[in-house]
Design a protein that fits this description.
The protein is an alpha/beta fold. The chain has helices spanning 2-10, 30-33, 38-54, 73-87, 105-109, 117-121, 127-130, 151-156, 158-170, 186-190, 208-217; strands spanning 61-66, 93-97, 132-133, 139-142, 173-177, 196-202, 223-229. The chain has a 7-stranded mixed sheet with strand order 3-4-2-5-1-6-7.
C-alpha cells in the first residue's frame, strides 16, 4: 500500500483534464469561489486554530462529522482542506470522502466519483486510479466511489486500516468527511482512528440533545472542537464557522 501511495503521488490525473468531468465547483466552496469573502476568512481562522493545536500535539488526520444529515459537514471539509492546500504550498494535503452512503465531495468539487474509496476497499482498483489531484493546488482527493450495501464493514476492515497507515506516511495533512454519527456506526468506527474530530453543527437546527448524543456515539474519539454552520450575523450567505 505504501509503495502504491508513492506512485499515486507522482502520477495523479489533473481534475481539469479528466475526460467526462463537469469541473463545476459548487459556489459554497468559498475558499476558491470567493477567497476574499468573510466566509472564506472564517475557514482560514478555523484552519489556523487547528495549526495552533498542532503545536501542542500531533494532529495529522482530522475527521469532520455531524449529528444528522444536512448540517454542512462536506462543504466544511472541502473548504478546510482547500484552505490548508492554499496556506501551505509545501505540504501534501489529502481529502477523503468516507461517506459511502451519501457522498458529496466529488459533486461539490465537480469531478467524477468513481472509482474511489469503495472500489479501493473492495480491491477493485489501485490507489493511483482512485485519487484525484485538484487543479493547481496541493490538494489530493479520494472520492467515495460507488455506494455499497455494507459500508460499515468496509470501513471497519483491514484494508481501511492499511489505507490510513499509508496516508499518514505519504501526506502531511489528511481531512476525512465522515457520515453523520447518529444514524450510522461509520463515524464511531473511523473517529477513534483519527487524531481529532470536528463536529459540524447547524445553527437553529441541531438541538443540544442531538449534539450530546452524537458525542456519545463518538466515544473514544478525540473531539477537538465544533464548527457552527449557518450562524446568523454572517457577512455572506454561506458559512460562518467557529472552533473551540
Amino acid at each position: 500500500m505504501d509503495q502504491t501511495m508513492q506512485r499515486a503521488g507522482n502520477f495523479l490525473p489533473r481534475v481539469d483534464e479528466t475526460e467526462g468531468a463537469r469541473n463545476e465547483v459548487d459556489r459554497r466552496v468559498v475558499s476558491l469561489t470567493a477567497p476574499a469573502s468573510g466566509a472564506a476568512e472564517q475557514y482560514r481562522a478555523l484552519y489556523y486554530r487547528l495549526e495552533r493545536m498542532r503545536e501542542l500535539r500531533p494532529m495529522k488526520v482530522i475527521a469532520l462529522c455531524s449529528a444528522l444529515p444536512g448540517e454542512g459537514k462536506t462543504v466544511t471539509a472541502v473548504n478546510l482542506a482547500l484552505t490548508a492546500a492554499r496556506a501551505n504550498l509545501d505540504r501534501r494535503i489529502l481529502l477523503v470522502d468516507a461517506d459511502l452512503r451519501r457522498s458529496q465531495v466529488a459533486k461539490v468539487l465537480g469531478f467524477r466519483s468513481k472509482p474511489g474509496l469503495s472500489e479501493l476497499l473492495q480491491g477493485e482498483c489501485e490507489i493511483q486510479d482512485a485519487v484525484r489531484h485538484f487543479r493547481a493546488t496541493r490538494l489530493t482527493a479520494l472520492p467515495s466511489g460507488a455506494s455499497t450495501e455494507e459500508p460499515s464493514q468496509l470501513l471497519a476492515g483491514r484494508r481501511m486500516k492499511d489505507l490510513l497507515r499509508a496516508v499518514r506516511d505519504n501526506f502531511d495533512e489528511v481531512y476525512i468527511d465522515l457520515p453523520p454519527s447518529l444514524p450510522f456506526a461509520d463515524a464511531a468506527i473511523l473517529g477513534p482512528q483519527t487524531d481529532g474530530v470536528l463536529m459540524v453543527i447547524r445553527a437553529g437546527s441541531t438541538s443540544s440533545r442531538q449534539v450530546s448524543l452524537a458525542l456519545e456515539h463518538l466515544a473514544g474519539a478525540a473531539v477537538v472542537g465544533c464548527v457552527l454552520n449557518g450562524a446568523e450575523g454572517s457577512a455572506t450567505p454561506y458559512l460562518k464557522s467557529y472552533a473551540r
